[in-house]
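Can't attach files on this board, so I'm pasting raw text. These are the components:
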Amino acid sequence: MTTTRAQRQQARRRQARRSVAISAASTAIVVAGIATAIVLSPGWRTIREFFFSWHYFKQVLPSLIDAFWLDVRLFLIVEAIVLALGLAIALVRTLRSPVLFPLRLACTLFVDVMRGVPLLILLYLIGFGVPLLGFKFLPTNEAILGGAALAMCYSAYVSEVFRAGIESIHPSQGAAALALGLTRGQALRDVVVPQAVRRVAPPLLNDFISLTKDVALVSILGPQEMVRVAQIFADYHFNYTPFVAAAAIYLVVTLPLIRIVDLQRRRALRRQSTLAFM
Amino acid sequence: MTLRRLLAAVAAPLLGSAALILATLPGASAAAATSCAKASLTLVHPGQLTVATDAPAYPPYFENNKPANGQGFESAVAYAVAGQLGFSSSQVKWTVEPFNNSYTPGPKPFDFDINEISITAARAKAVDFSTPYFNNPQALVTVKGSKFAHVTSLAALRGAVIGVQEGTTSLTAVNSEIKPTKQVQVFNNSNDVVNALRAGIVQVIVVDLATGFYLTSGEIPHGIVVGQFNAPGGDNWGLLLTKDSKLTACVDQAMAKIRSNGTLASITKRWMQSGAGVPVLK
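---
Top answer:
Structure tokens for the assembled complex are below.
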């Protein structure tokens, strides 16, 4: 007996429904189990009071959202700088002309040092060091200096992501572009880089998610961004609920981003038509 | 294991049980009835008083970053309280407790924490405080030549960029008493506050008066204390203990004793500069 196409599809749908039901049930059991264990734990009342106090949550939320605006401005502006600077560094490092060796060396050194120094120390060096130089044309605004330190650190990482992307494009692509009569610059701009950027979009988004949280480190230089405001409130009232509230605000921003990264990744896989076998 | 160590290891439990037997004798029960007798104290580590403070520990509260040397205001207060509770200096053990960790819920790794912690009603919901051992107003510190070096009122400071240390009551005091128009800059520790003033990131810093005296005596070149002011309700420092600790009442007893017998006053006089010469700004 031969099965028809319609029957096959029906069977597949049944199977899909069944696996969704099973995974939903198992998730519900696990989540309910963990929640019950936490609520029944001997310390639950203390935990609820110290971390999940509705009273403090309501009280602190508006000031956290106000302070978050500084974080948002910081990570958007810094990300724009990071993408531009990171790509520029990556491109310089792919150049092979011997005349440009000093530039390549400078970029390599920059990337190595920035990736090797803890961000916290870099923030201190830039934030407290630059104003001490006493030059009038340099900014003394700590949010700007902190943003500059973040941009330097993240550019180094992002340039490596771009470089990996550029190097992953098969040399035949560049060769074909040159054979068509494009200059090296044109080949890079119109053929190699667009493909590379597409390929590294998920890791770039990943770095961006990381950046959105690291902007909180700028607070060590004085600005009252959200995590600092939460800390001040927590230290004043001796209660940790503000940190939970700050985490919730972060999740509102980062969860959609994380989903986008996942979606991107699946799309890339589908483009390479490997998903069908997975 | 050397012979002496071996003997000590065997002898200690024996002596301990001997003490226990003695304590259960009818004659010894009178001593045990006063709940603050050393033997009946509930301690984190039996036989020793575990006292916490943050690291680094700054003058004038501690000297040379060594709380155990008995030098500095808070070190001296801690040893005076310990003495009243019946502990010798060698039975006092110091442990490091960052300020942010000092109010974590649950049992704490110290018997009491002495770290310039201000007593507030909100904080007292999460931890126990002893009665205060010091009252410290806020001080305005800047450098000579600053346009805020000669202010005579708090209103004159409204336009200043002010720096404070995170977790201190200075921020609340500044916001409620000065109401600055520019956002107060908040730093992790007092070193960063000082560096921010030196680098010109902030124009004025607000610290407690005792810290202000210390900073302007050397930490900040050309630093001056412009004036002092009081936060609403004042700023009293207390020892921090676990919420509902059985030790709190005994620590309060010890505190009352060193207050009434003049020990606290002489410690304060020795380590803390009097603020009488600093103008009070309103």
